[in-house]
Amino acid sequence: xxxxxxxxxxxxxxxxxSDGAWxxxxxxxxxxxxxxxxxxxxxxxxxxxxxxxxxxxxxSDMVQTNSFGGSSLKLKQYDLGDKxxxxxxxxxxxxxxxxxxxxxxxxxxxPSGKMVLTKEVTEDALYETFKEQAIALEKGGADAICIxxxxxxxxxxxxxxxxKDHTSCEIISTFTFELTKKGEYRxxxxxxxxxxxxxxxxxxxxxxxxxxxxxxxxxVDIVKEIRSAFPDKPILVHANAxxxxxxxxxxxxxxxxxxxxxxxxxxxEAGANIIGGCCGTTPEHIxxxxxxxxxASN
Length: 298
Known about the structure:
This protein has 13 helices and twelve strands. The two termini are about 25 Å apart. About 55% of the residues are buried. It has one domain (about 5-295): TIM Barrel (Alpha-Beta Barrel), CATH 3.20.20. A hairpin with a 5-residue loop joins strand 6 (about 180) and strand 7. The protein is an alpha/beta fold.
């Protein structure tokens, strides 16, 4: 039996489990500070494949790709801008190999690191770099493009347009929100969850949601706000393993698999359809989240 679209599976009532952190895992495998993580899809393919495989073995229905910083604009800081297509295609191909025919690859597309507001980059330049990345990811075997960790609408909308114009992939859009002193959630550019959701759905996003910046507990309120704006849209959450704590100069994410799993029920009640992890999460976290989701659905 082949895989349906992700949105079809959600419409059928399935609770889906995504994967966990990639950056954390890469550093555990030996990535050094200052190295290009995305380039590992070419230089260390066995390690990258093992990450995807480990998450599937933990119970993920879908995994991302080692391409978060894979835009040519981002890769230029490593003098790898001309390798963008090759790097992204390789990243998607490795996750596709791990996924097989039954499970999904939701290819990661992160921010360019440049802002239209400060005139570091134009919207046209963003569109072109995301176009190249999206085409390469689809060629490598991606089912969906996960446009993630965004905070500026202008950049996210160019990414969505590029994916929509040049691929047949489903489009996932997630923003990162921070809790303000007023008790509201906003991106660093001041975008609320409701404003974000309305803009990206209008632009063509198939699945919406939030990732990074928060642990499971705070994600509940963010999902509630998004769900209020869109009662029927699939919502994906990739939560951190809690809020980072700096211990001996190193950021440590404190939530255990068991602690994250306890909040799966409230997150589903808030309206989430797809749950996975972001910074600090491991296959053990995903295994616990999977079990909690199964128990909640019974």
